[in-house]
Structures are given as structure tokens and as C-alpha cells.
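CSRN2 protein
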Amino acid sequence: PPCAPPAPSILCRSRPRRAAKRVRFAQVTVYYFARRQGFTCVPSAGGSSLGMAPRHHRARRYSLSQFAHLRQVSHRQHLRQHLRREKLRARRRELTQNGTVPSAEAAGLTLADVSDDDLDVGQVEVGDYFYLQPLPTKRRRALLRASGVRRIDAEERQELRALRLSREQCGCVCRLTCEPRTCACSQAGIQCQ
């Protein structure tokens, strides 16, 4: 009798190729929120944390290329402002001999006194340079006021200071063995640190 061909092994069966799964984006949606006093973050110094309203007031859609261009323009503006502030500080230090001699001229200088010609924006690659910079307390307060926040909660300053202090103390003071009666970790219901 003729021999039947052997059944194909399940190990050798070729699986049908599936198309590679890829995610592709065609557009970017940007949501705009009004600025509010934060109460959700802890700035490294001072009070008046920045936050945003619970609901956006505007949304815009951009193509990927439009959004990339928009980000580049925005980053260049931030860089220009940062360089302008740095140049202003340098001029003030120069006029006051590193802060040792009071100078009325230095006190009268403003950002408007630093022209675009004084800035060396072309030497800095925006993509390599740009990152979020921490803002001093005065600038955060000015941003809040410019955004229409009439009353800045002064209690937040003390709360933030207490939070920063509590974050400096981590764990407990137990040595070698845990003493549950005096261990701050044990009393907080966590394992001894």
C-alpha cells in the first residue's frame, strides 16, 4: 500500500504573519486652563503655588507639524525671556560691584532696558536648553494676579513650609531594634525605617 505523507508537525507550522501594530498620531489637542493658586504642589521656596482651574476654557487642535512649530516658537520666547533676566541680573551686579555698592542706576534697570541685540539666542540650541525653570515667589504671585486671582491665600505659605520641613525628616530614630512605643514609623502604622 502506498505510504501516506507524514502529518505536518505542529512545531514546524508557520504562523501567518500579522501586520506590525503601530500607533500613529495625526493631530494634537491642547487644552487651556485658567491659572489658580495651586494647593497641590510644594515649591522649593516660599508660598503661592501655581495650579489650574478644574475645567478648561478652550481647546485647540493642531497638526503634528503645527504643534512642533508652536512649541519651538514658545520655547524660543521662554529662552529669550530667561536670557533677558540673566543679562539684567549681570548688569545690576556690574553696576553695584557684585552687590557691595548701592546703585540708583542698577535699581532703575528693568527688562525693557535689555534689547534683543544684547541677547545671544543664536548660540543656544533651544531643544537642548529648554526645561521648566522654578519661579521665584514674586513671579508666581505676579502670575496669579495677572490671571485674575484677587485674593492669594496667605495660609498656604505656612502649610508649604511645614510640608517642606516634614519631608526633611524621614523615618525614625530607632537603632538596631524597633521600640514600638517611641517609634514614629510604628505609630504611623508603617514598617520601621
